[in-house]
Amino acid sequence: MDGQRQREVVSALERALRAAVVGNFELVRRGADSIRELNQLALYAELPDVLDFVADRLAAKDHIGAQEAALKLHALLDGGPFLPLVDELIASLSPKQADGPEV
Asked: Which end of the chain, C or N, has fewer beta carbons within 10 A?
């Protein structure tokens, strides 16, 4: 296993999650593609497909679908260091947040 490649996978995952939080579906897709290309661990095998689904839902402005996909990410990454980012993504997609700030 190439340690450098796996570090790049971790970086791509972090970038994709941060992009999802701000709704940048194109960067989420790029992250998914990078993970798909570089990953060598079964742990991350499902992540690219789930990230692609998040990106598709963000592109369609389907916050409920994106939130459901984010919950899948939460389950896949359970106990890992990325849970705070996934939680931030889930919060950013909540109905109150998705419609904009409350006035």
From this structure: C
**79: amino acid identity, one letter:** G
d(CA 63, CA 10): 25
The pTM is what?
0.87
The mean per-residue pLDDT over the stretch 77-96 comes to 89
On whether the CB atoms of residues 31 and 13 are closer than 8 A, the answer is yes
DSSP helix/strand/coil, 17: helix
In a domain, residue 56? The reply is yes
Residue at 87 is within a domain: yes
CB 53 within 8 Å of CB 69: yes
What is the residue range of 57's domain? 1-92
